[in-house]
């Protein structure tokens, strides 16, 4: 084969691959733009702020209000605080097969938590209230580690979540009282 012919074949192949690679890059950039715009146009439903300096003095995150509560409208709400290096309360009791709303905030650094093998997973940022609702299908104890590096004691920052059968939880819970695993 004359050298100018093989050169023409090589150039054609290179051009073809240039187009293919270019198309792949274009698709990736398009995916980034589409998902970026999609998420930016759907911000969290609200951003709720809280004053770190006064949250332990008044409002819903005072110590006596932490733990699990049955609200007047029947919702189960867990309120907790993350701080270097523990959660308050350290042990959270929740009913199984029931929507449970978590409301959490931090006092000092950015923390986070994930609850065992569930989809409960949030960051907890000082000055903001993190909230999500989930339900637990399996009873038993789940570990709840802090999953944001928050300082030298980060790896020792754990909580526990006890998922109780719904009837057992409802029998223990008193309207207006806060429930956690450890008797207060
Ligand atoms: Cu708190 Cu890591």
Overall description:
This protein has 184 residues and is of the alpha+beta class. The protein has 2 domains: 1-42; 49-172, Cupredoxins -  blue copper proteins (Immunoglobulin-like). The chain contains 2 helices and 10 strands, in the order αββββββββββα. It has helices at 3-40, 166-172; strands at residues 67-70, 76-83, 86-88, 91-95, 100-106, 111-114, 121-124, 130-134, 140-145, 158-164. Strands 1, 2, 3, 5 and 8 form a 5-stranded mixed sheet that branches. A 3-stranded mixed sheet has the order 4-10-9. Strands 6-7 form a two-stranded antiparallel sheet. Strand 6 and strand 7 form a beta hairpin. The site of dinuclear copper ion has 9 residues, from loops.
Write the layout of secondary structure elements.
Blueprint: H1 3-40, E1 67-70, E2 76-83, E3 86-88, E4 91-95, E5 100-106, E6 111-114, E7 121-124, E8 130-134, E9 140-145, E10 158-164, H2 166-172
Parallel strand pairs: 2-5, 4-10
Antiparallel strand pairs: 1-2, 2-3, 5-8, 6-7, 9-10
The structure holds dinuclear copper ion (CUA).
Q: Strand tally, please?
A: 10
Helix/strand/pairing category: alpha+beta
Low-confidence stretches: none
What does the average pLDDT come to? 90
In the CATH hierarchy, the third-tier topology of the largest domain is known as Immunoglobulin-like
Number of helices: 2
The Rg value, from CA coordinates, equals 25 Å
Name the shape in a single word. elongated
